[in-house]
Amino acid sequence: MLQKSPEPGRDLTRIPLPRITYPPVVPPGDDARVWLSASGLLVLVWAGLAWPWLSGQVTIPWDAKAHFHAQMVFLAQSIHRGESPFWAPFVFGGHPQIADPQSLIFSPPHLLLASLTPDPTMRMVDGVTFLGLLFGAFGVLGFGRDRRWHPAAALVAAIAFAYGGAASWRIQHTGQIFSLIYFPWALWMLERGLRLGSARYGALAGLFAALTALDPDQVAFLTLVALGGYVVAYWMTGGAFVERFRATFRPLLVGLVVGLAIIALPTIMVLNFAADSNRPHFTIADAEMGSLHPSSLLTLLVANLFGTIGPNDRYWGAPSVHWPYIVNLVVARNMANFYMGVLPFAAIVLWLTSRRAYGHRFMALGIMFVLMILYALGKYTPLFGVLYHALPGVSLFRRPADSLFLVSALGAFLAGFGLDHLIRRGEEIGRGAMVALGGLVVAGFAAAIGLAIWLGKLQQSMLDILIAFGFVAATLVVVLLVRPIALRRPVLAAAAFAALLAADFGWNMRPNDSTGLPMAEYEAMRLDTQNDTILELRKRIVEDGTRRDRVEIAGLGFHWPNLGLVHGFENTLGYNPLRLKHYVTATGAGDQVAGIDQHNFAPLFPSYRSPFANLMGLRFIAIGAPIAKVDPRVRTNPLPLVARTKDAYIYENPDALPRVMVVNEAQIVDQTRLLQFGEWPGTDFRRVAYIERTSLPLPRTRFGGTARITRYTNTEITVETDAQRGGVLLLNDIWHPWWFAEIDGKSTPVLRANGIFRAVILPAGVNTVTFRFEPMRGVLRRFLMAAGFLPG
């Protein structure tokens, strides 16, 4: 039976401070066999709820496929080709994967899968996501056992963590899911480390906190804030602040060192990339567009009140066209759903209205839970504005709604505390708590019905309201039946609650347009696809010693822009919220180009018939409508239509230039101004390269030369040149400060040319030029330049 933590040593809870007290007699439910049974029930419920995805009936859609699956395939393919995955030439003309927090390079489960197979299928990748949620759920279960919760309470909390709230509604946001799954383990190990003064558990806490932060999104940021809040609460609860601080200094220091050792390199990479990206930070007005409307709180009680599950045009929550006034927000319908199960909701309310929830360190979880809800509401409460200006880091993120992940996770822990309190000390629950719970339920149903009447949606929503009422009634019945036997029959109690949650989540979190679509929707993402557009592009694209054709895919659907990562063709666009700023300025490339209305041009790239399109080597355009609808300028000089497939019109640009050229002359041009205004000094790009300012002597000769690519990989390119009087080697790949070059083994600067491309000044003769992507060297050079040790 579990009496104390498995690590021997001084237990700091012996310090006479206010803390949770345990029952005088250890209940039978603390038997290890009972916890093993609870673990088995957790796996059983997890497998049952995940089965539609694990069996291949559906797959996690949207971002999980359009962005993360493509990243996963690129990572696996690169590893099995023996190439570095640190740079991807297949989206946005070239992208620094090593610095992209969503590239999955630093995600241990995904890296493991990528190392095991060159073809990670959709079921495999979905399986990794669900296994991650199970891993997190076991962290909740372990925390509950340490806190001596009743096993049924710990099991409910674990299931609620894995399938409640954002863990289900936003399962397609793979990066944020994997920022969430390590939180229970970080909190569990942090609690042990603080309570026991243990460096070992402090190190484990640092490990799991670092794993959370490897994808430094807003969920990771808020998770670290929550962990920090818990530490402060541990120090502040009681009158022995100094003693507690001293006793916890060692585990916290060890955890900090371990965590920093893990996240230092990825964080440095990301910060460097962010500084040169299209979104180094967001204004408060932009961020507040990602707020949740207060009406979303009604989904705590009625999961499908607004039609989250069902056709998109029937969704009537805010924002949607069904509201009588404009709700100026940019959040998808699945982002605005709080539902985490009736039983967890009731347990949370009972705990937060109990005296036992306060006066000790665990009250931090309740405080953070409330703060995260207020944070999610964004502009509708004063809190977000205060934190935006006062808390460093908030301005880096675009959606306060992302805090819903922490609402769900913290809510799971609070549900465990509350259900344990109900089972063990139900007689202590006062009339006030029951009135509060009943009042919230009645008020919630009344508000849901009233809102539906106001917007004329009562007929549409009545069935879902009745179903929600049914789950409330079923939960009440199960609790009344199970509580009297829970202490004597803990496994039976756990099984009853598990069955209740399985039914609740099985219905209210069932696969829908936001969380589970048929795999056939994503057939084009298979490596062995028979999609006629992909096959047509593969047949036409040429990659040889001078020519490497680029393509542009636009308006073919949400999952198409990143298909270059899967099929190995070089797309000028892609899908990623984080992009190189100079490339965005040059091309107008946005986050996504699922529809033709999302396509943009730019001053330097005003048309598919333009000098810049030719420089990029943009040979083929696969577009979802006749090209003139996107680019009216081509009406006067049309591009030939070379194929018409089920998905796309495919056009060819016959004027696309080679990938490598030796040109006679270099002229200094302000690259920033060139991007801004798109005014070329001349357009004879086979003769002149327009380069950034350099101290190197500029070539000017009547004689040209030849260049031929002999090796082209993700991060290394070799070019053989023959320029008897010297010249400029122009490589029409995206310039980035982490690319370096050598001529016959001797280092030479990589100059920015023609706005966004790479150039090297060639000496006379036959030479071998090697370009290498070296991110660590690039970061070090930037640091030395900032410190004044190298010229800028």
Q: Quick recap of the structure?
A:
The chain contains 25 helices and 16 strands. The chain is an alpha+beta fold. The strands form four sheets. Strands 2-1-3-5-4 form a five-stranded mixed sheet.
How do the strands and helices of this protein lay out in sequence?
Blueprint: H1 32-54, H2 63-81, H3 108-116, H4 122-146, H5 151-163, H6 166-169, H7 174-180, H8 183-196, H9 199-213, H10 218-236, H11 241-275, H12 284-288, H13 342-352, H14 363-376, H15 382-390, H16 404-425, H17 431-454, H18 458-482, H19 490-508, H20 532-540, E1 550-554, H21 563-567, E2 570-571, H22 581-587, H23 611-615, E3 618-623, E4 641-644, E5 649-652, E6 660-663, E7 665-668, H24 671-677, E8 688-691, E9 706-712, E10 716-723, E11 727-734, E12 739-743, E13 746-748, E14 751-753, E15 757-762, E16 765-773, H25 775-786
Parallel strand pairs: 1-2, 1-3, 7-8
Antiparallel strand pairs: 3-5, 4-5, 6-11, 9-10, 10-16, 11-15, 12-13, 12-16, 14-15
| Class inferred from helices and paired strands | alpha+beta
Number of helices: 25
State Rg.
29 Å
- Amino-to-carboxy terminus distance: 65 Å
* Shape label: globular
Mean pLDDT: 93
Low-confidence stretches: 1-29
**How much beta, percentage-wise?**
5-15%
**Strand order of the main beta sheet, please?**
2-1-3-5-4
**Biggest beta sheet summary:** 5 strands, mixed
**Tally of DSSP β-strands:** 16
Share of residues in helices? 40-55%
> What kind of assembly state do the chains in view correspond to?
single chain
